[in-house]
Write a structure and sequence with these properties.
By secondary structure, this protein is mainly alpha-helical. The protein has 3 helices and no strands. Bound molecules: heme C (2 copies).
Length: 99
């Protein structure tokens, strides 16, 4: 019984903690993958060939943490992706199989 209360409390705290840092979508270090930042069909099976990135990716919820191990400016990338929208993604991620 105690355990159930603990679990419930944990879910409430983690679900509603407004000041908890959100790390956003996490696929590890993209530079470690064969394609690097450039998307390919085998690393992006669900999204391949679809230009409407924002159907699946919330731009507020990506580019939040730099996992590349290099000194990129993740805040600048986050802001740029939001200001350019989906027309800007290809510059860094390739054309995602969209002709
Ligand atoms: C139909 C849903 C969908 C669409 C549309 C989509 N994606 Fe994705 N994307 C995913 C999923 C799911 C993942 C997680 C990896 C996987 O299973 O494919 C992902 C992963 C990624 C990753 C990480 C890739 C990696 O190597 O792990 C990048 C970058 C990305 N998407 C960019 C884009 C861009 C840019 C577009 C638009 C051109 C796009 N996505 C459109 C669903 C989608
Ligand atoms: C200026 C280059 C640049 C642009 C423009 C850009 N990205 Fe990225 N993107 C990156 C980098 C670099 C990473 C790896 C970030 C990291 O290590 O966390 C990344 C990671 C991602 C990921 C994996 C999840 C994550 O947060 O790491 C997704 C999904 C993604 N981008 C989607 C998009 C979409 C959709 C667009 C267009 C709206 C876009 N990107 C525009 C450089 C860019």
């Amino acid at each position: 019984m105690k355990k159930i209360f603990f679990l419930f409390g944990f879910l409430v705290l983690s679900g509603c903690g407004g000041d908890a840092f959100n790390e956003g979508e996490d696929y590890g270090n993209l530079l470690d993958t064969p394609g690097g930042l450039t998307l390919n069909q085998s690393e992006h099976p669900l999204g391949w060939g679809d230009a409407n990135c924002t159907i699946c990716h919330n731009l507020e919820n990506i580019h939040l943490v730099n996992r590349t191990g290099t000194s990129i400016d993740i805040v600048a990338i986050h802001d740029r992706a939001i200001s350019e929208g989906i027309s800007g993604c290809a510059a860094c991620h390739g054309n995602n199989g969209v002709p």
